[in-house]
Design brief:
heterodimer, A: about 475 residues, mainly beta, Immunoglobulin-like, Neuraminidase, 2 domains, five-stranded mixed β-sheet, about 10% helix, disordered N terminus, B: about 210 residues, mainly alpha, 13 helices, about 65% helix, elongated
């Protein structure tokens, strides 16, 4: 009888210490996807004052005791156990008291010996846009199944599906992008039969067939002009390929690409000789913050895939006339690929007009499987380039977008497991300094352990897009695609 | 390619997961030395009672001499050169494997069979080395090639290891083929499983 009481007591102690989690956390440490003592690693990160709770767990599989104390402004919160999972109200109170300063954290961890780790969370008083859209997709290679586009509320753990396979007969859909983080001005593509570009403008959803007979393909990459009337797009003949060498995985390249402009008011497509050249690949067009320029990537055409590793895109720009939708004829090189020996992808202008964030890779136009691919930031006022060492990691860092305030950006990174993209956020100061990024917090700290889909093209929104998957299903089924000429 | 195929298998499985695919993904990444990717899959498998033992044996640091030998053997077959190929460039993919490891018999046989399936006998003869692999199908294909090029001589029969029995069977096939004006109506029973029959009568299904 006495023995059974002792056993019960021991079980109770183990239960209290471990939180009843019998999950096996091996492997952890060097050369794994869990190199830090905690996951997600929130040590030294800067978070916005309105972010959802930073739930995490300690990764040491042999941990027998964990006590975590968070302190700020005279307030203190203590957690016991491997998992640190906040009550939302408690987190909000602590973050509010730390806004503009920091939260000090002491982790006391026993695994054989007792170790004390002191670390901080910096809390910026710059709030982040409260919505983030992303596509969830297996990092499969050339096919898809069960795609969803999700809108996550960043101040909580709530999310809603804004388009999915269930309502569209498992159609392929491409990522959702806002114009300057506006929830009432955004678009994405539904591909295949019954599809089109879904334009969300001022609460109205339209389905558009953005193609005319002169274009080499339907529109692919692009952006909506801040005034909402025009969109600039690339048309690309996209070919998927595979690297034969281990772990290089997939390479996607264009055998032709041009730019075009869509007039959403008059259902008209326009193309221009300077940006539709046979001897130049033009892609990834975006507008400057004031809408007077189009930035894009351009490379001399080469035979691909034979010369794929010599295919390097420069960052260039061309004037845009917001009254007519015309692109100018004078193409300026902003960042020369040949001078830097690198290839540019995905330029994105901050809404305040100060910064241009872009990706550089060794070559090509599809950086998500390029481990070397990193973010760079151009100061459009001074011309200085920031290498963003605090942000970049050994893993593809790309598919970025800005908050409406230009104080935060989000990007997808495959750091860690190297396979699955996840959204990371970083703060930008007036002087261009950026902070150590933090991973999108999840209610379940083990969420990413079991996630087998990538977060594709995370895009910030200052308000909700206002539609959901059911409404997109209705548009897909019932609304005919508007023809553009 | 092994990783790609495992990922595609998982993609089309009912729940988009399954230990069979996770095991293949873990093992593929262990072979290629991508322990960061492998660790994600191993952790998922460790938390499944039916896969736990399998995963434990593959945790870095826990490898048995047998498993280490298995991995090292697989690594011998990895491509050592990088090039970008299309998803359907099967010959190129197999040639890359052979270029890295000429003793990769499986890659060689797949390549030769690909040549035979596509009836590309010039490619087949260029790829075929009778000292590395053998099959009655290869003998049969060589005989079609030699007959069409005027090379039916003893020297070639010896070089390509053509057995007297195969040669005699080929002569019988040709006799009936000519007698029936290529109709093939008396060839199916005896020659239905030969490459000769495939070469002359198989029609590609375009559907």
């Amino acid at each position: 009888m006495r023995n059974s009481k002792v056993i019960s007591f021991c079980v109770l102690v183990i239960f209290l210490v471990t939180g009843c989690d019998s999950r096996d956390l091996r492997p952890a440490g060097g050369h794994t996807d869990r190199t830090s003592f905690m996951f997600p690693d929130y040590q030294g990160v800067t978070v916005p004052c309105n972010i959802a709770p930073l739930n995490f767990y300690y990764t040491d599989p042999d941990l027998t005791r964990a006590v975590t104390v968070f302190s700020s402004g005279g307030e203190s919160v203590t957690f016991r156990g491997r998992e640190v999972v906040w009550k939302e109200k408690v987190w909000k109170r602590l973050v509010a008291s730390a806004s503009g300063s920091e939260i000090e954290v002491v982790s006391t961890l026993k695994s054989g010996t007792v170790e004390e780790k002191r670390w901080k969370i910096h809390v910026s008083d710059d709030p982040i846009d409260p919505y983030l859209t992303y596509r969830l997709i297996e990092p499969g290679f050339e096919v898809w199944d069960d795609i969803e586009i999700v809108e996550r509320h960043l101040e909580s753990f709530e999310s809603k599906v804004i388009s999915d396979w269930r309502h569209t007969a498992n159609k392929c859909m491409n990522c959702h992008i806002h114009s300057q983080a506006r929830g009432d001005l955004s678009m994405f593509y539904l591909r295949g039969e019954g599809g089109g570009a879904i334009l969300n403008r001022n609460g109205t959803l339209r389905k558009l067939s953005l193609r005319d007979s002169s274009m080499i393909s339907p529109t692919v990459y692009g952006e909506i002009h801040p005034a909402g009337r025009f969109g600039v797009f690339s048309t690309n003949i996209i070919i998927p390929g595979m690297h034969s060498f281990a772990n290089r995985r997939m390479e996607v390249f264009d055998t032709a690409s041009d730019l075009c402009v869509a007039d959403f008011d008059n259902n008209e497509m326009m193309s221009f000789p300077a940006t539709a050249r046979d001897d130049v690949f033009e892609t990834f067009p975006v507008f400057s913050a004031d809408g007077k320029w189009v930035y894009y990537c351009a490379a001399p055409a080469r035979p691909v895939p034979a010369e794929i590793n010599q295919l390097m895109y420069s960052l260039v720009r061309v004037p845009f006339d917001a009254a007519t939708g015309n692109l100018g004829t004078q193409v300026d090189t902003v960042w020369s690929a040949s001078a830097h020996g690198l290839s540019v992808c995905h330029p994105k202008a901050s809404p305040d007009g100060r910064w241009l964030l872009f990706t550089v890779a060794d070559y090509g136009t599809f950086p998500i499987n390029h481990r070397e691919c990193d973010l760079r930031m151009l100061d459009l006022k001074t011309g200085n380039i920031f290498t963003l060492d605090e942000v970049n990691a050994d893993g593809s860092d790309t598919y970025h977008s800005w908050s409406s305030t230009s104080k935060w950006f989000v990007f997808a990174s495959k750091r860690g497991d190297g396979m699955f993209g996840k959204p990371w956020f970083s703060h930008v100061s007036e002087d261009g300094s950026v902070t150590k990024p933090f991973l999108l917090p999840q209610e379940d700290p083990h969420f990413y352990d079991n996630m087998l889909r990538s977060f594709n093209v995370p895009d910030l929104g200052s308000s909700s897009v206002g539609f959901d998957a059911e409404e997109i299903g209705r548009v897909w089924r019932e609304v005919p695609a508007e023809v553009f000429n | 390619m092994a990783e790609r195929d495992a990922m595609l298998g998982m993609l089309f499985s009912p729940e988009h997961k399954g230990s069979r695919y996770l095991r293949r993904l873990a093992e593929t990444n262990l072979v290629t030395g991508d322990f960061e990717a492998a660790s994600k899959y191993l952790r998922m498998l460790l938390n499944s009672p039916s896969d736990r033992k399998w995963a434990e044996e593959r945790l870095p640091g826990s490898w048995s001499p047998e498993f280490r030998s298995f991995v090292e053997n697989k690594r011998k077959y990895l491509p050592r050169m990088d090039l970008v190929h299309g998803m359907d460039q099967n010959q190129l993919i197999l040639r890359v494997l052979l270029n890295s490891n000429p003793s990769n018999k499986m890659a060689l046989d797949y390549l030769l069979c690909y040549d035979l399936l596509t009836k590309d006998l010039d490619a087949f003869v260029a790829d075929y080395d009778p000292s590395l692999t053998a099959s009655h199908l290869y003998e049969e294909a060589i005989l079609i090639f030699l007959a069409s090029k005027g090379g039916m001589n003893q020297e070639n029969f010896i070089h390509y290891n053509i057995s007297p029995a195969t040669l005699e069977k080929f002569n019988r096939f040709v006799t009936i083929y000519k007698r029936d004006n290529g109709s093939g109506r008396n060839l199916t029973d005896e020659f239905g499983k030969t490459y000769w029959y495939y070469f002359y009568y198989a029609v590609k299904n375009e559907k």
